[in-house]
Amino acid sequence: MEFNKKLLIDFPVYQLEGKRVFVRADLNDPADSEGNLTGDMRIRAVLPTIGYLVNARAKVILASHFGRPKNREKEFSLRGVKKRLEELSSFRIHLAPDCQGEDVVKLSKELKNGEVLLLENLRFCPGETKNDPEYARFLASLGDIYVAEAFGACHREHASISSVPKLIPSMAGFLLAKEINTLNKLLHNPEQPLVVVAGGKKVSDKIKVIGNLIDKVDSICVGGGMSFAFLKAKGYEIGRSYVEDNMDAVAKEILGNNGKKILLPVDVMVAKELRPASESKVVNVDEIPPDWYGVDIGPKTIEMFKAQISKAKTIFWNGPLGIVEIPDFSYGTRIVGLYIALSSAITVSGGGDTAEVVRMMNLDQHFTHVSTGGGAALKFLEGADLPGISVLPERS
Questions:
Q1: Superfamily of domain 183-382
Q2: In which residue ranges of the chain is CATH 3.40.50.1260 found?
């Protein structure tokens, strides 16, 4: 299925000079408690679009959210994002003091061709998350053209995502088009065999995705916290392992309908405590001690997943297979991630946690596509409409 929305690449480049182009990006990369960036995958992903506009001598109004501020806490400022953008590029970037008000309007009017004005965190303004029409009109007044690049936020009905595109000429940027085209192929026309590696804590996050892909997949390799919901549904004792509430019936239904395609761990690493250097051991899934936690997949499971990965032509990976925040419990995730990266298959990773593991292991360049969308990618693969995409006009 072709992505049939208006695209930046179709807009005559000679008409961009002097135009104010409002780029809604997702620059929400991970940061520490002080607001210092610990990753820059999303920033890097939008650089081609910004560079294209700068070289076309457009005036770029760049906007993004960053974290979930309650007020205007300094650690949620985009100062660190501006610094990283400057380190990664030669762009001339000005950081606005706010995301609304006359000062912002003045700066946008003073912007020279080929320069970038980065608005302060959009979530500093309550109107953004409330999808306030007045705030949407203010943002729209800053641009002559709107370019959608915030795939990771496209599932949210926020002012800059789903309202501004209705007010000025709008189109999808390079990154958004790549995200949708890649996931469209995965959903509608994947090269077979298709293998899904699914992890993370919650079955509820993946139910609809599994349902939408199950007819196309060769196998779904399940690890992480969600695997214990399925093991419990099969009657195994899982000790103190994490299990999402009220998922027994759902897990049983999924297994009942698609049991042959869903591969569950045959052995797991268990630990006495959820902390570094805890006593731990590998056991078969029918030997999990009552007071121990399941924290990672075991070596036999790794080999089983490796066999599936080795015969795949397309692989989609979403979710860690163990508690990756504790290095002792991250081996299964890291080794399976390496097998996926080294595969000759088309390889796509989706989800913030998965992308962070890929980045941490420096495997970005070995994946066909590392999606910048977490919840948005899952919603898309569920078959749901994403407000930030459905609002964009169709290609004529």
A1: Phosphoglycerate kinase, N-terminal domain (3.40.50.1260)
A2: 8-175, 183-382
pTM confidence score: 0.91
State the Cα–Cα distance between residues 43 and 65, nearest whole angstrom. 12
Distance CA 312, CA 191 (A): 9
Band (1; pLDDT cuts 50, 70, 90) = low
Query: Could you give the angle at the alpha carbon of 196 between the alpha carbons of 191 and 198, nearest 5°?
Result: 160
Mean predicted confidence (pLDDT) in 132-140: 98
**CA–CA distances in Å: residue 141 to residues 9, 21, 135, 164:** 23, 11, 10, 9
The answer to whether residue 190 scores a pLDDT higher than 90 is: yes
Range 8-175 classified under CATH 3.40.50.300: no
Going by pLDDT thresholds of 50, 70 and 90, the confidence category of residue 175 is very high
Q: DSSP for 190-232?
A: PPSSEEEEE-SS-STTTHHHHHHHTTT-SEEEE-HHHHHHHHH
Q: Please report, in range form, the residues annotated as the binding site.
A: 26-28, 42, 65-68, 123, 156, 206, 294, 325, 351-354
Provide the pairing of β-strand 194-198 with 314-318.
parallel
Q: Which residue has the tokens 């109107």?
A: 127
The whole-number average pLDDT for the span 225-254 is: 91
d(C-alpha 47, C-alpha 37), whole Å: 17
| Residue 145 tokens, joined | 């053209």
Instruction: List active site positions.
Output: 42, 202, 352, 375
Return the structure tokens found at 258: 């698609």
Which are the contacts of 253, defined by CB distance < 8 A and separation ≥ 6? none
Model pLDDT for residues 280-312, shown as the tens digit of each residue? 999 999 999 999 999 999 999 999 999 999 999
Cα angle vertex 2, ends 355, 23, to 5°?
55
Instruction: Answer yes or no: is pLDDT of 324 > 80.
Output: yes
> 10 Å Cβ neighbour count for 110?
11
Query: Distance between CA atoms of 268 and 302, rounded to whole angstroms?
Result: 10
**Average pLDDT in the 98-123 region?**
97
